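<derive_structure_tokens>
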Amino acid sequence: MSSRSRARDTIRLTGLTATGHHGVFDFEKREGQIFQVDAALTLDFSAAGRSDDLADTVSYVEIAELIHAAIVGKPFDLIEALADHLAREILRTDERLAAAEVTVHKPEAPLTQSFHDVSVTARRDRTDIDRTDIAAPQDLAQRPGADPDAAPSTEVTSVLALGSNLGESAVTLASAVAALERAEQVRVLRQSPIAKTSPVGGPAAQPDFHNQVIEIATTLSPHALLAQTQQIEQDHHRARGAENGEVRWGPRTLDIDIITYGPERISSLTLQVPHPRAGTRGFVLVPWSWMDPQAQLDGTPVAELARHAADAPGVEPLESLR
């Protein structure tokens, strides 16, 4: 029996507050107002209860980051749409989540009557996500590599995001790109300028990150590409997992994430593509937009997503862009 089928535990976030620009009226989108979000996540965290290891549960820091980015991000007309979007995106962050309940509060709603709050609640479970992610048979036939262990018949373009904030980070990123250039079945097509970014989540006292986005062409399967990037991380002294002293979103010598793999949507225990949080992370989106101003992620221009990312103001080029 899977842990998801045994899910009866709950993680709650209550009263996460930020200013957003959601609403039907023009002045709501122009001036903005306060929104609050409560989220209840259903899962089985008995393994974490026994191990006391963050790797065995879902990080509420990650969920809070996603919620905040949605509140301050692309405006919705209806809070119903915002709640639905959040519930689905939360479930997509981790396959161990069985259900998500999201309540969006709009305490400054444009009502003439005296009131305390207006809120809506969306309840979504894994079947809602599974239904929306099922492609038509003809689409699957046109998408080689949907199986994460199957190598594509022709080269696939993939976008990778690199980050480092320990040691000589700029040197480390250059070394990682060089390692990818030497790797079999991988060609580096282009790379962004290096960005200096403020840390997002994790311990407050840690050095700024250096981030870079690169585009490659590869005939490796998704899982083989993941193995290749993790080997490069290991070669640069990356220690994965809490048992090796790694803190989630903490300092690290090198981090390589697979953001896209052609047009594929991949969901396995070790890999989710497109990366489920790439669309809210300025430290990915901003350098990506420098590298490719026409790039899109799930049909939305990357440059537009970058403008709405909460952490985008903290992303700056290490050297002046020409």
User: Anything to note?
Assistant: Residues 9-131 form a domain with the GTP Cyclohydrolase I, domain 2 fold (CATH 3.30.1130.10). Residues 132-145, 240-250 have pLDDT under 50 and may be disordered. The first helix runs from residue 26 to 31.
